[in-house]
Predict the 3D structure of the following.
Amino acid sequence: MNNINTYINQHKDRFITELIDLLKIPSVSADSAYKNDVLKTADAVKEALEKAGCDAVEICPTAGYPIVYGEKIIDPKLPTVLVYGHYDVQPADPIELWGSPAFEPVIKKTEIHPEGAIFARGSCDDKGQMYMHVKALEYMTQTGNLPCNVKFMIEGEEEVGSVNLGIFVKENHAKLKNDIILISDTGMIANDIPSITTGLRGLSYVEVEVTGPNRDLHSGLYGGAVANPINVLAKMIASLHDEDNHITIPGFYDNVEELSTEERAEMAKAPFSLENYKKALDIDAVYGEKGYTTNERNAIRPTLDVNGIWGGYIGEGAKTVIASKAYAKISMRLVPNQDWKTITDLFKNHFESIAPAGVTVKVTPHHGGQGYVTPTNTIGYQAASLAYEETFGKKPIPQRSGGSIPIVALFEEELKSKTILMGFGLDSDAIHSPNEHFGIFNYLKGIETIPQFFKHFTELSK
Ligand code: BES
Ligand code: MN
Ligand code: MN
């Protein structure tokens, strides 16, 4: 199928321009100020799918942002691949840290991407990766190389928890029936070290509020005599880890899957340079749970992190005050067999129980989801592995990721199908950060590799 390279060479400028146009629409799902832009992006995705050869493309309304659905059924007897992706993006802030505006995409060369990368919010997560599938479909339909059926389901609420997609999936089993789910919304080790993501962590996300006195107080008149909610919150948060950086919530580790020595030895074979890791982040040491390596800490171990903390006076200069309230947003990344609802309850009970007299504590759960591990002894994984071998000239390494796509576990539960995570981003692409980018090499390599997956999956299904 070498004509994919010819096709990409002929059309790559247009592939890049089309993606840039999509990136110009600020589809920030978390901020209602962008509502019209999110809706506009759904329309743009619909149009792109139609142009690429999808039949029956529809905008499916939900209680939140719509799901764009399309399909190309060439023969009901052939296997069906369901492609999932998301057209919403994270907020761009802090905008002052961007080298160029988040929604005015530019191509810049970097050390890691000498052939250039597109800088824009959503370039890697996930518009760029989702659009690779649209262009791969275009190639397959235009050149008579579509070997099986394909369905597309592109949602607009991934970055805010996919709650409405969950409902949609539960209500549309027949429509979404498939033999394998294919997602490009993760990463790989390096451009010359292809890897396939075999695991995602689960998530429990909560907000906490600590209330002390009924109003803000003069910190001289009252300081030292009443509980200061910010001091108390800091102390409570600090107590959630012990001196070995284990999480102290009773029962937190009860169901955690422990990997065997062999499995850990296998994991340790993946290429990784601690020196480069530290250098890339400008840190002089890594930090984490005792007894585990860096790669284990962010893939097979559960964690607890404060994502934001606020309260009191943060304006210019100094104000002497004891705030009435203090807040924090806390996420827990979970591993297989930890149930996110159970963990959320354990957190809530524990956090309320450690509140000292003089304050009240409120814990509000936001969203969450289960972790996911995909087996490697399936034809889906084999097809993906063969696809990478053809386009990278190397066998890809299976590797679990620390990130979360909570809907994947629900796909398995509801649709009874496995998901293959063919991600083409790099950790250094700065997703969710200022200056997010996606390598042109990665974008085009994705478009090249996806049709190979379709070909091998169809052949192996026979
Ligand atoms: N695409 C990411 C998840 C990801 C990135 C997984 C890289 C593995 C490697 C996704 O858009 C995301 O950001 N997920 C959120 C969770 C969601 C519920 C907001 C996350 O992981 O924080
Ligand atoms: Mn994503
Ligand atoms: Mn994301």
The radius of gyration is 23 Å. The longest strand covers residues 202-211. The chain has two domains: 4-200+371-460, 202-256+302-369. The chain has twelve helices and 18 strands.
